[in-house]
Design a protein that fits this description.
The structure is a single chain. The protein is α/β, with parallel strands linked by helices and about 230 residues long. The chain has a single domain, classed as Aldolase class I (TIM Barrel, Alpha-Beta Barrel), CATH 3.20.20. Helix content is about 30%, strand content about 20%. The model has no long low-confidence stretch (mean pLDDT about 95). The structure holds D-xylitol-5-phosphate and zinc ion. The site of D-xylitol-5-phosphate has 21 residues, from strand 2, strand 8 and helix 7.
Length: about 230
């Protein structure tokens, strides 16, 4: 039995990738040293943007060898969970604000043998999930308003991360931060207790499939910002 892995993981969000080349983009970020691949699913209803659905996720699965981390920003969400499980997601994260029966939705995710994640919008208090922690594998603290890449990190969420880290005690739960993570903001999130860093623009900006070494430079710069600060 291995101890729970709390090493810092970098999860680039392919929301900032070239949508015409998503398979190659996933291979590129993995080749350049990312730990997980974060897949943002948006429905134009729960959030004001549309990305892609389970068929795209199933196609991407063939290009991802690490962890396929699917962040569902959709409502209703329950009827789609089985589709994303079948598409091969390793982690399925749903929003607390998107499920009227959150505990039941999490049990549904786990019934497919998947890791169950809960995302909390910036205004959602940590106590929302206090009594269902034993059914949660990952908490995604939204450090921007969900919907698009390139927004500014919301500093008030640092306190929420600290509170969640206390609440989960020794439970095997990852705390993920999503939104506005850069070389300037990552350390504060990690110090507060986060162990999975989602980053879109700060990993993909300046690079491309043919300039994928830039992705590697950006990933390494994010990692080394944790040691310097
Ligand atoms: C926001 C998404 C994030 C987003 C992060 O709705 O959930 O994953 O892509 O992008 P950056 O890192 O650019 O804030
Ligand atoms: Zn996300």
């Amino acid at each position: 039995m291995h101890a729970f892995d709390r090493t810092i993981k970098i999860a680039p969000s392919i929301l900032s990738a070239d949508f015409a080349n998503l398979g190659a983009e996933c291979r590129a970020i993995e080749a350049q040293g990312c730990d997980w691949v974060h897949v943002d699913v948006m429905d134009g209803h729960f959030v004001p943007n549309i990305t892609f659905g389970p068929q795209t996720c199933a196609a991407l699965r063939h290009h991802i060898t690490t962890v396929m981390d699917v962040h569902l920003m959709i409502t209703p969400v329950d009827r789609f969970i089985s589709f994303f499980a079948d598409a091969g997601a390793d982690v399925i994260t749903i929003h607390a604000e998107a499920s009227p029966h959150l505990n039941s939705s999490l049990q549904n995710i786990k019934s497919f043998g998947k890791k169950a994640g809960v995302a909390l919008n910036p205004s959602t208090p940590p106590e929302t999930i206090e009594y269902i922690l034993d059914n949660i594998d990952l908490i995604c603290v939204m450090t921007v308003n969900p919907g698009c890449a390139g927004q500014t990190f919301i500093n008030s969420q640092i306190d929420k991360i600290k509170r969640l880290r206390q609440m989960i005690e020794s439970r095997p739960i990852n705390i993920q931060v999503d939104g506005g993570i850069t070389q300037k903001t990552a350390q504060a999130a990690v110090t507060a207790g986060a162990d999975v860093l989602v980053s879109g623009s700060s990993i993909f900006n300046g690079g491309s499939i043919i300039k994928q070494h830039i992705y590697g430079e950006n990933i390494r710069a994010l990692r080394s910002s944790l040691r310097k600060n």
